[in-house]
Design brief:
By secondary structure, this protein is of the alpha/beta class. The chain has a single domain, classed as 3-Layer(aba) Sandwich (Undecaprenyl pyrophosphate synthetase). The protein has 9 helices and 6 strands, in the order H-E-H-H-E-H-E-H-E-H-H-H-E-E-H. It has a 6-stranded parallel β-sheet with strand order 3-4-2-1-5-6, with helices on both faces. The chain starts with a helix and ends in an 8-residue tail after the last helix.
């Protein structure tokens, strides 16, 4: 371990002590992550995009371990957007294969409850089956909930929620007029991909980009955001701890 690593380790330990002194209500229960920068990381290494995606996938289990240590209850990982489905066929096939392997490996640990979020009908049938199998295999796990956002888009989620709500109410015989008069926020929330879960308290985006790009549009209305310059494969525990500390230093106003 070099001097720089020693310094970072000492710094990380200090932040851990600071966080440990806080009450659970001061720490995020749900952390969302936009895992950005895999392809740009690969370009800097003189590698192809597949190697970047593999390097990013290799970071995920470490990250979930850091979240466990910080008593986070829910993590949402944005692995594939609906826009990503428009990528060239060869690149998309490689990325989907990496995602399938990653989700299978997460399930195989037996540590976490894997929950797919996204429009699974847009995905290859094999991919949808892998996601469903991972969810079924981990449904009784006591660990943190890991939402794997695959084929996910925030606008598509809201549309799917409204469609599901209309279908449900039609089956109950509710007229459109009655539904329009009674419709409220909770009606929509109860049909989101993440229904029953707390909304994200903290959303982290790597790679230096400072936008949500449609990530958890409904749920992130009152989230705190943390933008990190590091590309996802280079994201370190100390970067995560900095994000956590930044969250604890903010006065949450919930939109006011």
């Amino acid at each position: 371990m070099g001097l720089r690593d020693v310094v970072y380790d000492m710094y990380a330990r200090r932040i851990v002590r600071e966080l440990a002194a806080l009450g659970p209500d001061q720490l995020p229960r749900h952390v969302g992550v936009i895992l950005d920068g895999n392809r740009r990381w690969a370009s800097l290494q003189g590698a192809d995009s597949e190697q970047g995606h593999r390097a990013g996938a290799a970071k995920i289990q470490d990250f979930l371990g850091w979240c466990e240590d910080a008593n986070v209850e829910v993590v949402t990982l944005w692995l594939l957007s609906t826009d990503n489905l428009e990528r060239p066929a060869a690149e998309l096939a490689s990325l989907v294969g990496i995602i399938e392997g990653t989700v299978t490996d997460l399930a195989a640990t037996g540590r976490w409850r894997v929950h797919p979020v996204g429009a699974l009908d847009l995905l290859p049938s094999h991919t949808a089956r892998v996601l469903k199998e991972a969810e079924d295999a981990t449904k009784d796990c006591d660990g943190l909930i890991v939402n794997v956002a695959i084929g996910y888009g925030g606008r598509r989620e809201v549309v799917d929620a409204v469609r599901s709500l209309l279908t449900e109410q039609a089956a109950l015989g509710t007229s459109l007029d009655d539904l329009a008069n009674s419709l409220d926020v909770e009606h929509i929330a109860s049909h989101l991909y993440t229904r029953g879960q707390p909304d994200p308290d903290l959303v982290i985006r790597t790679s230096g980009e400072q936008r949500l790009s449609g990530f958890l549009l409904w749920q992130s209305a009152h989230s705190e955001f943390y933008f990190c310059e590091a590309y996802w494969p280079d994201f370190r525990k100390v970067d995560f701890l900095r994000a956590m500390r930044a969250y604890t230093m903010r006065q949450r106003r919930y939109g006011t």
